[in-house]
Amino acid sequence: MLSAAAGAALTERQARAQLRPEQVLVVYDRRIAESLAVAEYYAGSAKVPGGEGNLPGVRPGVEVYNLETSGAPPATFFGANIDRQMFIDRLRSPIRQALSVNNRWATVRCIVLTKGLPHRLMDSTNQFIGDQPGGTAAAWQAGNLTCASVDSELTLLWQNLEAQEAGGVGDSKADGAILNPYFRKTLPIDGWATRFIQSNKSFQAAGTTPATGPGMYWSALVPNFVTVPASVHTTPGDMYLVCRLDGHTVADVRAMIDRAQNLVYTVATATAVIDESGSNGVADSARNGEFDNQGVDEVCGGDDYEQTRDALVADGRYRRGPADSPPAVVYDAASGAANFCVGPLIPYNGEGRLVSTPVVLITSYGNNHQGTQPGQGVGSQPPAGSSYAQSFTLAPGAIFNSMESYNCRSFGGLGGYLGQQQAADFLASGGTFAVGDVFEPLAAHVPDSLMLARNFLLGNLSWAEAAWSSIPVLSWQTIVVGDPLARPARTSEDRDGDGKISVDDLYAFVAAPADLNHSGSVTSADRQFVDDAVRIGERAGMKGRQRP
Predict the structure, then answer these.
(1) Rounded CA separation 526/339 (Å)
(2) For the chain, does the N or the C end have fewer beta carbons within 10 angstroms?
């Protein structure tokens, strides 16, 4: 019998509901065959006509927008690249127009871009500077870098960041990066209202620790609403979560979407691979020169790889057994081929640290691993730096986030760069989600795996929410790939074993309490895992829209 306390917990209804289908706008162009095919598969033929037909849609409750109806030419320029004016005319302005109908700007919280739409916004002064790591760093430090991912630029849809851009130092807010107001947040996006999303924000050169030069960082994060109007301040309610359904082929995208449905991580076998290089293995609080521990205080949350390891271990659900058993985390701090983590699907001439269990998270230095790589210069196998993510046995829901500058470059047929692992190859090999960069991001600005672990592998946020909580800056190089509405569950909370989380799992836990975190005894923490998972699932099914 369900206890009174359990029943009370389930009747709670808070305003902070999870991202819902009616809050998602899928943007496609019927004139681009791949874009049409992906949108139709995701939203269904009833909402996206003109394609294959008779498709029910994986997420039929989402909103859709066909760019063709704007009257602008297709958003194509050098394939996957687009310049600033075309971005404005063929993407940003049409999407603004679509969201202005029936005040959808206030209710849509997530924009989804489909395969075939460009993902790289070229620099206004030096078009391909983002493909030059040294040039990117110099231009950014000079306060004059305007290249970005299309996706990241659309997060601040209603802001004219390029205003007054004339090629000078910090002359527009498109120069440099804008601090992400949702970075490191743990609440669903509905925790912040969209009332002022269309208001012009008062972006100023961000005061950072240590101090940075003009044009490098911008911020409108104002702590005092008494002296500063709320309309010019930025909160997570002033941005859209922008995700992308993309891959090498439409079939890859369909398979990626399918793997994200009814997602339950099997904690008894799932493994997180955290592969560092040249590290001391200690979660240092101060920046220590490691790639995962760089940047000013405002973008550096600490030693990311070690923090991710420690969070997964401390949580306890991803373990092979009791508290004294090893957690399902493979962490390696050392360099060289013997310490480069690889899976069993590519032999690499027997080199590398082998991880044979199904992998749910790959966070790695990849091609930036110090020393030699498995397979490098020996036999017919490719060096691991460009293929390691494809070598693992990937569990449904597997996430890719590497410390490589161009790991999301190759969408749209653009191709990889500098021998780095490509997210598109990972997705084609059975991956489900990816975050990464389309141009050189500089190490301080790559997504934090800690937030992916905390909000998704261990938490209950949707993929869009978890991914954008991991990203330090906006108007920058990062994209988020995967079904934004995917929501994680774990076999630890699926107490009745039916492959979904519902109130029945709470009934089952009350009837047979279990030590979910392998602490050695059943405590309130174990019950809380189930409570939280059930509650967020109930809220995800709620109807109604957020008030502006």
Answers:
(1) 35
(2) N
Evaluate whether 274 touches 305 at the Cβ level (below 8 Å): yes
For residue 539, pLDDT over 80 is answered with: no
Bridge partners, residue 327, by sequence: 319
Helix runs in 12-143, H state only: 33-43, 84-87, 93-100, 104-107, 133-141
Give the tokens for residue 338. 């013997």
Find out whether 246 and 481 touch, Cβ atoms under 8 Å. Answer: yes
Six-digit token string for 528: 């809380």
CB neighbours (10 Å) of residue 443? 16
Distance CA 46, CA 24 (A): 16
DSSP string, 447-472: PPHHHHIIIIISS---HHHHHHHT--
Q: What is the pLDDT of residue 15?
A: 36
Contacts of 245 (CB under 8 A, 6+ apart): 38, 42, 112, 113, 114, 115, 253, 256, 257, 481, 482, 483
User: Quick one: what percent of the chain has pLDDT higher than 70?
Assistant: 91
Tens of pLDDT, residue by residue over 61-89, are 999 999 999 999 998 766 799 999 999 99
Q: What is the DSSP letter of 268?
A: T
